[in-house]
Amino acid sequence: MLTDVYSELRKIWARINTDENITDLNFDIRLHKKLLDIFQVGNYYYMVNNVRQSRLELVSPEIEQVLGYPPGSFDLALFSDLVHPADMPYFLNFEAAVERFFASVSGEQLFRYKVQYDHRIRHANGHYIRILNQYIIIQHDAENVRTFVVQTDISHIKQDLKPVLSFIGIDGEPSYMDVDVEDIFRINSHVLTGRERDVLRELADGHNSLEISRILSISKHTVDSHRKNMLRKTNAGSTGEMIRMAYDKGWI
Fold first, then answer.
1. φ, ψ at 236 (rounded to 5°)
2. How many whole angstroms separate alpha carbon 16 and alpha carbon 139?
3. Which CATH class is domain 5-169?
4. Is this model's pTM higher than 0.90 or not?
5. CATH topology of domain 190-249
6. Is the pLDDT of residue 252 over 90?
7. Where are the alpha helices (DSSP H) in the chain?
8. How far apart are CA 155 and CA 119, in angstroms?
C-alpha cells in the first residue's frame, strides 16, 4: 500500500509547466453553484484547489453533509488519507495523466476541458462512499494553478469498482472517455495477508468455505473469518465482487 499519497500527489503537481499565465475571466462561482444545484445527480460539495501551492483555498459547507467533516478541518493531506487503499493507485495514476494531458494544451484550451474520474473515499463514520471528482482549471500561472472542484456522492449510481478517467471537452473541444493511463503507481497484495490470498485463490477456483478448510488444513471458522476480513479490507459488497477486484489488481 502506498505510504504517502499526499507526497506523491505534490510531486505530480510540481511537474506542471510554469509558462502559461492566464485566468478564466468568465468563471463565476456563484453561477456555477446555481447550475450545480439544478443538475447534480447527488449530494455534493465544491472546493477551490490551488494545485501549484498544494492547498485548498475554499471548501464549501456541504462537505459536512457528504463526508461528515467540517470545512475548516478539511485539507489535501486529510483528503489523501481518506482515499480507499485499493483506489489510491487509480487516483495517483489519473492525476499523473491529467498533468500530462494539460501539458499538451495551452492558452484558452486550458479552460475548455473538465477532468472527471471516480473513486471511493472514507466518510467520517468509517464507511466508504464513491465520489465523482470533477474539476476545471480557472487560473494558470507560475505562482498559482487554481481548479474549481466538485465532488458528488454517486454511491447510489455506480456499483462497479473500477474507477474511470475522462476528459470532457467544452466549447467544441473533443472529449476523451475512459482514458487508458500509464500504470505508474500500483497497489500491492499487502492489503491482504498471505493466508487471506490463499483463501481468495481457492474462492476464485470455485471452492466453498468447507472445501477450503480441507484444502488449507484450517477450520471452517477460520476460513469464514478470513472471508469476512477480506470483504472489510476491500470494501467489496460480495465475494464475487472481491474476486473481480482481485483479478483486476493482480492479487491472484
1. -80, 145
2. 13
3. alpha beta
4. no
5. Arc Repressor Mutant, subunit A (1.10.10)
6. no
7. 5-14, 29-39, 63-66, 76-82, 88-103, 194-204, 209-216, 220-234, 239-249
8. 10
